[in-house]
């Protein structure tokens, strides 16, 4: 697996993509106005990449990781400049450690190299030697909040807990999942883990891998499951767009149906729930007041949203969105900011509409 930071591509392809980007810049301004977020820029992986549906943002929001054409690429989250590229085939999941020093990658294994989970050391920009064979098609892996354990679907089913230091097996969450596991999440204090699968089964476990009560059946295949930031509740999303919040004892709280919903995210405060949505009626991010499941904001995208990461302010208001749309670029949406003096009279030698 190699690391490089050079981009390649022909002049003709570059011109074509620049023209496409110019069109995209003009299209979304009106559609994104309900939240004040507007399409502003894109990362550039390579000039001929044709996929890109996974992204991850490190905890301090300075590095963006994305997957394109059998590569994992690190970008500066502010300037969008490429930091490094790592050759990894068939990447299925990306997840930064809680302290941001490691990026866990679940990638395709081979007959010659039977390992799927690899760790990228961020300070040295190198791939560590340790690796383990999990389910190499699993789309969700999760770090424990202390960064000591990685939870991932195992190669033989169930969910395995691997020690960070050498990726050795700590314990197995067994006896529940006999089909593909689709979602895993730790509570914020690390005391509990929730797992769900494509049959609709889900269960809550303690940090040692002991199931808390019987597993339950949601009725439809699950595609996401998340604890609330305070760990007192969790939310489940099925393939038909049904979203239900539940207390940790399993009792129902609120339920809504969101056509095309495919990912759930929470504000750091837990007061807002963001739902990535792609349907004929709406393509974008729906923001709900979590205590009522009422829509607070809508951010419309002009393209498909395969994955989304975000930055917010101290009041849980979205400031920046990073959106993977299945291409070689990650779209960047920013809250509109009008600088002091904008469009006022005066000498403007640099053409930014602000007097010098």
Keywords:
five-stranded antiparallel sheet; 1 helix; 356 residues; four-stranded antiparallel sheet
Oligomer: single chain
- Spell the H/E element sequence: EHEEEEEEEEEEEEEEEEEEEEEEEEEEEE
Average pLDDT reading: 85
Largest sheet: 5 strands, antiparallel
- The count of DSSP E runs of length 2 or more, i.e. the number of strands, is 29
Fraction of residues in H or I helices: under 10%
Structural class: mainly beta
Count of helix runs: 1
Taking Cα atoms only, what radius of gyration do you get, to the nearest Å? 21 Å
Shape: globular
**Beta fraction of the residues?**
35-45%
The low-confidence runs, each spanning 5 or more residues with pLDDT under 50, are 5-36
Distance between the termini: 49 Å
